[in-house]
Design goal:
The protein folds into two domains: 195 residues, no CATH class; 130 residues, Rossmann fold (3-Layer(aba) Sandwich). β17, α9 and β18 form a beta-alpha-beta unit. The chain is elongated. The chain is 24% helix and 23% strand. The chain has 376 residues and is α/β, with parallel strands linked by helices. The longest helix is centred in the first third of the chain and has 12 residues. The chain is built from ten helices and 18 strands.
Length: 376
């Protein structure tokens, strides 16, 4: 028997301790989804406003393999569209860094509290004895924070669209006293909030204040269940409406029509560009860009006018949200295939191509140079 086997029954026993998990121990009630809590306890969740109905997401454009065999991840023509809600939680708490939203009854709302790869009962909030000191705020808060939204993809497709859920439920003019996010240390978080006229001095970042409680917390659903990557069309419409007005603020003196997403400086999913490849890319009129060095306004402008976008799988492909009928060519390593950008491109009428190659020990993507250039 290992330590984990001993720890689990002790944690279950700790759920019966007096008081709540504000200071120590796991939440005292088992996790449940927002709809279930709203039906069982009006004290914990007195208001649940339906926003988007359940539906289906259709992948009408076929993903085309180039230089590889077809992969079953791209052969799913229909995906479920998650219904969304806005919930009001009096005296609600938010705990980070693995985000957990807790009711006044000390129950975790499992559909907005994700610990990837684990069921709700095994969320990090239920596996810890000590928690950071809880800081109380007077006023209302809108929770944008969700596990993973300190990264660009999940910030754009999971966190920010929750503003749209709140706006549809309350109206565009409604505003909380505070907003809760994972972090403000990422430039794309600060820039996007500023562009949306959200005052940064009213934003609470969980990496700085990891345990907070408010007079009332407004919790929007996640746009797609468990951050599955099946982004619904309303998310793309919201992002376009929010950021396409940035087009007049683009700083680059030129807007290349063909973009190569350069991930050579990252730790994973790199396709290292040799001088020979860079020369060939230039001949093919591709401009190699490290998108993480560019402001959001610049990226919106670059992708809006692009006719072709290529590169290794990564968050840079989020820019397809702002394009129209572009060709996407995505390169994968064989041990990690994620069709999320194929799904995203469906809503912008983009043509999608992919190549799958074996990865090497340095976690970079290795391709046959001749075939690679032919594919481009």
């Amino acid at each position: 028997m290992n330590f984990r086997d001993l720890r689990r029954p002790f944690l279950r026993w700790a759920m019966g301790w007096p008081g709540d998990s504000t200071r120590f121990g796991p939440p005292r009630l088992p996790p449940a989804k927002m709809v279930q809590v709203a039906e069982e306890s009006k004290n914990e969740l007195p208001e649940l406003i339906p926003v988007h109905p359940e539906g289906k997401i259709f992948r009408n454009k076929v993903a085309i393999p180039i230089g590889c065999k077809p992969h079953p991840a791209f052969d799913i023509p229909v995906a479920p569209q998650t219904p969304t809600y806005l919930a009001r939680v009096p005296r609600g708490r938010v705990l980070g860094p693995t985000v957990a939203v807790l009711t006044s009854g000390d129950r975790m709302l499992s559909d907005v509290s994700l610990d990837w790869g684990r069921p709700g009962a095994e969320h990090y909030a239920y596996r810890r004895f000590r928690v950071p000191r809880c800081k109380d705020y007077q006023g209302s808060a809108l929770v944008l924070a969700c596990t993973g939204s300190d990264t660009y993809y999940h910030w754009l497709t999971d966190a920010l669209p929750r503003l749209e859920i709140a706006a549809r439920a309350h109206g565009d003019k409604w505003s909380p006293d505070f907003w809760v996010v994972n972090t403000l240390s990422q430039a794309f978080v600060r820039e996007s909030l500023a562009l949306l006229n959200i005052p940064l001095d009213r934003v609470i970042a969980l990496d700085k204040t990891p345990h907070v409680r408010f007079s009332e917390v407004w919790i929007p659903s996640l746009p797609c269940e468990a951050s599955s990557g099946d982004t619904p069309s309303w998310v793309v419409s919201f992002l376009q409406k929010a950021f396409l007005p940035c087009l007049g603020k683009v700083r680059p003196p030129y807007l290349p029509k063909r973009i190569w997403i350069d991930r050579s400086s990252t730790k994973s999913r790199r396709l290292v560009l040799t001088n020979e490849i860079r020369h060939k890319l230039k001949q093919l009129r591709y401009t190699a860009l490290r998108l993480e060095t560019l402001a959001i306004a610049d990226q919106v402008g670059l992708f809006h006018g692009a006719e072709a976008i290529a590169g290794p799988h990564g968050a840079g492909f989020c820019g397809i949200t702002f394009s129209s009928k572009a060709n996407m060519i995505e390169f994968f390593e064989s041990d990690y295939i994620n069709p999320c950008y194929y799904s995203l491109g469906q809503h912008t009428n983009s043509n999608y191509y992919y190549n799958i190659s074996k990865s090497n020990l340095e976690e970079s993507i290795s391709v046959n140079l001749t075939n690679f250039l032919k594919d481009l």
